[in-house]
Amino acid sequence: xxxxxxxxxxxxxxxxxxxxxxxxxxxxxxxxxxxxxxxxxxxxxxxxxxxxxxxxxxxxxxxxxxxxxxxxxxxxxxxxxxxxxxxxxxxxxxxxxxxxxxxxxxxxxxxxxxxxxxxxxxxxxxxxxxxxxxxxxxxxxxxxxxxxxxxxxxxxxxxxxxxxxxxxxxxxxxxxxxxxxxxxxxxxxxxxxxxxxxxxxxxxxxxxxxxxxxxxxxxxxxxxxxxxxxxxxxxxxxxxxxxxxxxxxxxxxxxxxxxxxxxxxxxxxxxxxxxxxxxxxxxxxxxxxxxxxxxxxxxxxxxxxxxxxxxxxxxxxxxxxxxxxxxxxxxxxxxxxxxxxxxxxxxxxxxxxxxxxxxxxxxxxxxxxxxxxxxxxxxxxxxxxxxxxxxxxxxxxxxxxxxxxxxxxxxxxxxxxxxxxxxxxxxxxxxxxxxxxxxxxxxxxxxxxxxxxxxxxxxxxxxxxxxxxxxxxxxxxxxxxxxxxxxxxxxxxxxxxxxxxxxxxxxxxxxxxxxxxxxxxxxxxxxxxxxxxxxxxxxxxxxxxxxxxxxxxxxxxxxxxxxxxxxxxxxxxxxxxxxxxxxxxxxxxx
Amino acid sequence: xxxxxxxxxxxxxxxxxxxxxxxxxxxxxxxxxxxxxxxxxxxxxxxxxxxxxxxxxxxxxxxxxxxxxxxxxxxxxxxxxxxxxxxxxxxxxxxxxxxxxxxxxxxxxxxxxxxxxxxxxxxxxxxxxxxxxxxxxxxxxxxxxxxxxxxxxxxxxxxxxxxxxxxxxxxxxxxxxxxxxxxxxxxxxxxxxxxxxxxxxxxxxxxxxxxxxxxxxxxxxxxxxxxxxxx
Lengths: 590, 231
Ligand SMILES: Cc1cc2nc3c(=O)[nH]c(=O)nc-3n(C[C@H](O)[C@H](O)[C@H](O)COP(=O)(O)OP(=O)(O)OC[C@H]3O[C@@H](n4cnc5c(N)ncnc54)[C@H](O)[C@@H]3O)c2cc1C
What we know:
heterodimer; A: 590 residues; alpha/beta; FAD/NAD(P)-binding domain; 8-stranded mixed sheet; 22 strands; B: 231 residues; mainly alpha; 11 helices; 0% strand; binds flavin-adenine dinucleotide
């Protein structure tokens, strides 16, 4: 028999960026909120302090800050006719756990999506004709526009203190910034990073070839900054321990460094850690959520938390899984094409080029930061004419200098023995003289890439695992090939002695690491049969459930997701505060 | 305009890379035309001064950098070469304003500053018995050093200055074993902005959020630490 807690108005399932943002936006609303986080509480002090934090083995290799797959994992396969197997070690993606979620160990590369990304299908049909979108793709419009989201991007970027040089302020194109970007209402709050050496030679080569390089918008701060919440961040020390690590310097924007100091004092918000949510409880007709049931991880006890409103803020595919486990909406079936939960699972189409330089080119990449990079957007999204190319979508090409840490960074040219004296000599020869270009590509939806509940495997609490069925669409492989070739041309211009292209190939595999940019599963849109939530992130079927995060993306754009995840959280928060709390019910009529 | 900015950044970086190399000793062939720094020439200046008027450093810092037994002069043994070089440049340019070191640094050529940095940068921290410090003060200092003062957003010092304050080459100085009175005076100087040569104003910002007691405790704590020289 589950223990029952006093009822609250709002319950959050998972406390990362999105929950923290919405809870903060409701600070003046007369609601009582509780945030349920499966992991533990943690903060810059004492949890992320150096030298303990600079433990590459513990955090980068052994994934000290990430989800424990012995407790809960996913099963994976490439096609619906295969049998999925559990992912027993983390690899391709690294979901977070504990307070702050993946927002603690992310890199901080903070890009907005393009105007066309939000109207992807209609944009392509308008520009290239009705047949232009390949048959295999089930890409869609979002049901919101860039203009809807712009003020919320702005809020999120000022919360984080993003550092960059704007390329388009209210339509004024400014060379030196991203000249392809959608108009922003004002400048970034902080000045851009200074290019690392690799970035500087990349910029020079790119300009020689007629491209427009700029510094990656960075949530690793270039100076001390007090955000609009009154929370203070410090400048980045370029220590090279960013992605997969917490920041000891208050210099990487995370829920802890941007919101937690004020949220923890907020009277109407309670954080409850060690609370692993099993499901959302529904009325018999499934039209209303009555709260959630969670396991108190410390005691193993089942606890019921009644609530008027449930916000699923548990990260991309976890949100979709919770909906499926709870019976919210209808599971998607790729054979019939019916169902609205589980659709359009997407990822990121990554490829790279390795540049082996002569020994007099010292890259010193150990001085790095997660978002320290120089990039061109000329081949992102639909920034270039796709006529006759045979694919839609694109990728940005970036030269990142994120740390070159000793255990994992030892590039050697192909053909080098994998161990022994020759390998060691090659590592010493190439360590400081090898850089990489990254092609960070769009991921388009197909009818056979989706998530559902696994029929066989269960987690530590006895619940079915989420099953991911995913492979790269032919369209995306063609795109990746094309952009990788452009990156090779830039690499040549940079004067590398040897260039090795690593284009994206199918099938998708759970190793090696690609990105933690998993998207879709409970996508937003205008059609209740084909989308799980309306344009505000509100469930069509159970209107007192809202969903946050990249779960909502109908497909993934060229860029890293979190700027859009944060903007959507502010957008949803405004809808809840200004509309839903005044008159509970569907915000979009069905 | 932006092209020029990238070009300037490129040039600065190329120079920076060369410096980092000289600072950390031989590190592969450098594209820079500058002659390699010579620690031996540096030692001669330390002992004899220069014809253009630089007083022998040894008078105040000792031949081995460990000082002359007076807390009027900072210890510079065990400091990273690049840090020494940067301080000499900053004294010379006035970015770090000091009536004693300013004229001395100005009378040194860039090559001489590099040679001196190479010399001091190659020296170990000279063993000396740690002072007996007030245990209460040391405890407070240890907390500040390792965990900072989170409620005021002060990072733990060791995050930048290395475990026990051993320093982290190239740019972050050793604090361990330094005279508490000197450390204290520098923290005050940062707080008042009279020392303002810290990149990104890290020390100025942080010291403004420390009070007298915090500064005294951190200074006393570091004076008593004896880690080896940072790699
Ligand atoms: C290594 C890495 C690098 C990245 N770099 C970038 C980057 O440079 N740029 C970018 O844009 N994005 C990046 N990301 C992605 C970014 O971290 C995420 O987009 C962002 O953190 C998502 O925020 P969220 O609030 O949706 O989810 P999360 O931050 O994952 O928070 C979800 C929380 O929910 C909790 N939770 C999950 N299930 C349950 C349950 N059943 N019960 C209770 N609690 C639960 C989790 O423990 C977690 O704390 C990166 C991610 C990783 C892992």
